[in-house]
Design brief:
Blueprint lengths: L2 H36 L17 H8 L1 H33 L5 H13 L2 H11 L6 H8 L14 H26 L3 H9 L5 H12 L1 H16 L3 H7 L10 H11 L3 H27 L6
Helix pairs in contact: 3-7, 3-10, 4-7, 5-11, 7-10, 10-13, 12-13
């Protein structure tokens, strides 16, 4: 191939890639650069003057008790939701995959929470968890737990929100695991049976679980990101209460940016949140990828 032809093909390739690069620049890189720039200023929404403060926002951030509490609450929420989202989604997928006639019904039933608007459903949850009128509280009283206010008890509110988060995300993870289960060749189970894996647990540990490695890695990373972004249920159900027990990173970020108009400070908080998500995603990918079997 001659040099002029190589240059012509390179220019043609660059021309085809230019629209995609322009979109990435406009939608990802430019907003990220603006976010980093705002995070080192004292900019307040609507202010005419902006002053460069360097890393003062970050220093104030980690000295802020509200931020520390929101960070702790967010990690507790993720620690509760993540295992349930991954293993709950896998368990439901295994049960649904084994069905024959009623499989379509269960797929739709478990996936419905994913399609529902969480703000609207949070209103339903607010009624269901009402301390005097809600059916959940009535059930707890019938079981002998007495009057329990799940959304206004500081020791129970965050766990209650985590259960609602699980209710919504398990259906989506179920669909991903069902796709992974359907892609496993049946002859692998026959070969495993010849090797002595005749029981269900043996087939799961020797065939199903290793072959679901790529799906499990994807589900783990996406579930982590989803859990870190909890916001809707906090706003509708608790507004960070009681006593700050459900204040999460995204909710505090919203208050700082859109209630108190401390845009520079909120931008620094966003950078920290993005850094946590990137680091956790890379760590999870490296740890899980070592045990993943790619067919």
């Amino acid at each position: 191939m001659t040099a002029p032809r190589q240059r012509a093909e390179a220019r043609a390739g660059a021309a085809f890639a230019l629209p995609a690069f322009a979109l990435i620049l406009a939608l990802l890189l430019a907003p990220l650069a603006a976010l980093l720039a705002l995070s080192v200023t004292d900019y307040r929404l609507g202010a005419m003057a902006v002053r460069l403060v360097g890393l003062d926002n970050y220093a104030a951030l980690f000295a802020d008790e509200v931020f520390q509490r929101s960070l702790r609450n967010t990690f507790l929420y993720v620690a509760f939701v993540l295992p349930g989202a991954v293993f709950g989604g896998l368990g439901v997928a295994l049960l649904v995959h084994a069905r024959r006639r009623s499989r379509a019904f269960y797929e739709v039933a478990y996936f419905l929470p994913v399609t529902a608007t969480l703000v609207a459903m949070a209103t339903v949850w607010q009624f269901m968890l009402h301390p005097s009128l809600g059916p959940v509280s009535a059930l707890l009283r019938a079981l002998g737990f007495g009057d329990v206010d799940l959304l206004n008890d500081p020791s129970l509110a965050l766990g209650t929100l985590a259960l609602i988060g699980l209710w919504q995300v398990i259906g989506f993870n179920m669909v991903l695991f069902l796709a992974g289960l359907s892609a496993i060749p049946r002859d692998l189970y026959e070969a495993a049976a010849l090797d002595g894996a005749r029981s269900g647990p043996d087939r799961f540990l020797r065939v199903t679980w290793p072959m679901l490695g790529p799906t499990t890695m994807f589900v783990t990373i996406t579930s982590t990101i989803t859990a870190f972004k909890v916001f809707d249920t906090v706003v509708v159900l608790t507004r960070g209460g009681p006593l700050g027990s459900t204040e999460t990173l995204l909710y505090v970020l919203y208050l700082e940016g859109f209630q108190y108009f401390r845009t520079g400070y909120a931008a620094a908080m966003t950078v920290v949140l993005l850094a946590f998500l990137v680091l956790l995603s890379i760590l999870q990918a490296r740890v899980i990828d070592r045990k993943v079997h790619y067919a």
